[in-house]
């Protein structure tokens, strides 16, 4: 059977790999399929009212903490100081910051393989975060989990997850427990556009809809499921269009605008907390770095021009410009936040590097029950 490039462009790279059996051929085909770039979305959230000065500073600090943590983690990885893989969140900061600004410590979230940003925005501390990345005992998982499994139940962080879509039913389970106990807490599973194709998403969404659970599904649609463009892994343009099948509403917001994300997720959280059931919020966003690491695997699937176009709408710069232009925050105040965060990072990296490695005698600790 003859397959033309036009035929191949209609299917996913994974299917192409199985079809041809050669990764080299796949790379050639997928690179020709990315001539059409993913255009930056219109700023649909620009009409949301500007929040208070306190909220603006809070959103800014959360985003800067994520940006600088991830930048330093990427630098350490490229320098060979960190073991394992890193899936960096740079570019998507507005989603975690905006969503988390609506939550209490008692509200719970589940995360993804790209989970550092969610943890930091929920209140995780740099010391324990870096120690975990270094594989040291002072890390959140005592050096056993690494990048993709950071959790802190005291702040409602149920954990990152190396399985695509794996965190979604966990958060729905937390929402079920809250409703069963008569609590007014809300759960948020974060996931990407690719995870909305996974069976766990559909099963969890169906259960949440039927039981009217207090859960807000937040899809971070960055346009790519690893290296596969959205147009090649689903027929829908908007993940939000999946929600009506399960009987609950959805909303699309500008994922590069922290104010827009805060407003959209805030409406959904209020609805869930008041017994209105689930909502799906789709945030259209973009990751600046490759799927893994800073330099990535050097697969050709998007252009540098596309990346630069999205950087023009950088979430932190947008918030700074808006706050300064409206006279709510000064440039000096924003500069102080950057400096404070950088100092925290430097101290925390030093702490992590001096933290001891796990003792081999405790190898089976927390693996088996007593």
TrEMBL record:
GO biological process: pyruvate decarboxylation to acetyl-CoA
Keywords in alphabetical order: Oxidoreductase, Pyruvate, Thiamine pyrophosphate
InterPro entries: DH_E1, PDH_E1_Alpha_Subunit, THDP-binding
Cofactor: thiamine diphosphate
GO molecular-function terms, A-Z: magnesium ion binding; pyruvate dehydrogenase (acetyl-transferring) activity
Domain Dehydrogenase E1 component: 61-359
Protein name, entry field: Pyruvate dehydrogenase E1 component alpha subunit
Recorded superkingdom: Bacteria
Pfam families: E1_dh
UniProt KW Oxidoreductase keyword: yes
Organism: Williamsia limnetica
